[in-house]
Amino acid sequence: MNGPALWANLHLLFWLSLTPFVTGWMGENHFRAVPVALYGVILLMTGVAYFNLARVLMKHHGKDSVLAKAIGSDFKGKVSLVTYAVANPVAFVNAWLSMACYVAVAVIWFIPDRRIESVLNESSAKGPKF
Predict the structure, then answer these.
(1) 53 part of a folded domain
(2) Quick one: pLDDT at residue 127?
(3) N or C: which end of the chain has fewer CB within 10 A?
(4) pLDDT grade for 43, boundaries at 50, 70 and 90
């Protein structure tokens, strides 16, 4: 672990800590446009922070590390960021469509990602690397 990784992790935790407040505000206002859009901003910034943390960790461990191979091009992360960025302005047109986009991203991440498991199984079969 190094300093940039710790800061990137704190950045992610900061945005995650805002989620309950904006979720409560969104619920209290019956999913009006501004709270739904702000919820999307928090989700977008959380996604940016996750993407940044993954990049910092891959830089720290090297591009040939097990982590870098497991994350790969991070297609799900990139799709999530684009979906959040599109859904934010959509909230001012149709808040429920924006919420559907947020739910779609959650479903994408809920589906297990076999990349990490397969890379870890492959690396453990080759033996430990010290």
Answers:
(1) yes
(2) 61
(3) C
(4) very high
